[in-house]
Amino acid sequence: MSTDSKDTGTDGAAAPAAPRRRPSTDPERPTGMKQLVAAVDRYFGVSASGSTLSRESRAGLVTFLTMSYILFVNPQVLGAAIDDVPGAPVQLLMTTAIASCIGCLLMGVVGRYPFAMAPSMGLNAFFSYTVVLGMDVPWRTALGAVFISGVLFVVLSVIGARKAIVSAIPYSLKLAIMAGIGCFLALLGFRNAGLVVTDADTLVTLGDLTSPVAWISIVGLVLTAALLQLKVKGALLWGIVGTSALSVITGAAVYTAQDGSMQSFPGFTDGLVALPVWPSDLVGQMDIGGAIGLGLLSVVFTFFFVDFFDATGTLTGLAQKSGYLDEKGEMPRAKTAFSMDGLATMFGAFMGTSTTGAYVESASGIQDGGRTGVSVTVTGLLFAVAMFFWPLAGVIPGAATAPILVLVGAMMMDGIRRIDWDEISEGVPSFLAILVMPLTFSIANGVSAGVVSFCAIKVCSGGWRSVHPVLYIVALLLVARYVFFDI
Questions:
Q1: How far, in Å, CA of 308 to CA of 478, rounded?
Q2: Which residues are within 8 A (CB) of 313 and not within 5 positions of it... i.e. 6 or more apart?
Q3: Interhelix angle for 53-67 vs 373-389, to 10°?
Q4: Contact predicate 90/351, CB 8 Å
Q5: Could you tell me which residues come within 8 angstroms of residue 164 by beta carbon, excluding any fewer than 6 positions away?
Q6: What is the pLDDT of residues 330-349, one digit of tens each?
Q7: How far apart are the C-alpha atoms of 414 and 243, rounded to whole Å?
Q8: CA gap 195, 181 in Å, rounded
Q9: What is the pTM of this model?
C-alpha cells in the first residue's frame, strides 16, 4: 500500500490544487476599518447612547473650541507665581496643553464620559495669588500640595467615598446643581462678552453695548440661537465659526494683545505651525517633601476640598445633562470617573500646573450631541494638536465662545421644572444652590449652600430621617471648612 499522502486521481496523477480562497467581500462581514469602527462603537457605547461617531467628533471639537481659552489664560495666571523659569509663558502653555490632553484621554478612554478635563480656573488663581504670592510658599512646594490632594482624590474614589457622597445628594439638589452650573456658565459668557461688568455701587451692571466685543457677542448669540431653533446639526460649532469669521471680516477689536489691550485680528504672525517646546523646567519639579514638611495642611485641604466639591458638582451636573443619572439619581461608573479626576490632578502637578479638573464647558459639547468618551477623547487629541498649531487657535476670540456659554447655560435650566417647589425643604436648598454658584463665582460654594441648608431645614422641620446619614457628615465637614478655614 502506498504511503504517499498526496491525493491522486485514477491515473495516479496528482489532483489539481484547490483554488486559493479570496478574502470574503460579504458586505455583512465587517473587515479592516469596519471592524475597528465597530469595536470603538461597542467599547464606548456610541450607538447604544443614540449617538454616532461623527456627532461625537463634532461635539469634541465644539468642547475644545469652547474651552481652548485655557491654553492662554492658565499661563497668564500661573506665570505670576512661576516667574523664575526661562520662557515661562511658552512652557506653561505646553504644560497646560499636555495636562489637558492626558486629563481628557483619562476621562474619555478610561472613564468613557464626555467630560473634558483641564487646569481649573479659580484654583490656578488660588495657587498663584494666595498660596505662592500671598503665603510666600515656593511654587514647587505648592505643586507638591496639589499632588497630595490628587492622591487623596484617588484614595477616596477607590474606596467609594466620593460615590457615596454623590448618591447621598437628593435628586432635587442634583437638578439644582445642573441649573446652578447653567447660571454659572451664563455669567461666564456675559462677563467674557463684556455685557456684565463689576460696579462699585451695584456690584454688577450692564457693560458697554457699543464695544466691539459686546456687539460681536450679541450677534453671535442671536445667530447661534437661530441655528439651534432651526435644529441645524452642529449649531454651536457653526455659531463659533460664523462669529469668528465676522470678527475677522469686520476687523473688530476683539482679540487680546500681549499688553492686554484689544485689537483686530493680527493675522498669523507666527505662521500656522509652530514646533512645541518641552517644558523641561516644569516637569517633575513638584516638592512633595516640602509640602509635608512645611505643614501645609490648610493648603492641601483647600486644594482638596474645593476641587472635591467643584468636581462633584460639575460631574453630577454634566451627568444629569448628558442623561447618565439613573432613576435613583446615581451615575454609573462613578468610581472610575472620580478616580480619573484625581489621576488627572496628579499628572498635572507632575507636569507643572495647578489642579486639573472637569470643565463645565463640556456642556457645550454635550448640548451638541456628545454622549460618550469619544467626544472628550477628540477634545484631548485636539489639545495635543494645539501644541503644533496653537497660532491657529488665536482666530477664535472670546467673543465667539461667550455666546455659546450663555446658550448652554440657558438650556441647562431645563431640570428645575422637576424640582418640587411646593416642598419648602426641597425648594429652598435648590434655590440657594442655583443662586449661590454665580453670585460667589464658585460651584463648590453653591453645592455647599444646598447641602447644608437641606440638612438644616430637614432637621428643624422634623424630617431628619429622610436624609441620608452620609449627607449629615458632609454637611458638618462643610460647616467646619467655612468656620475654621479661611478659604
A1: 12
A2: 177, 180, 181, 443, 444, 446, 447
A3: 50
A4: no
A5: 470
A6: 778 888 888 999 999 999 99
A7: 26
A8: 19
A9: 0.71
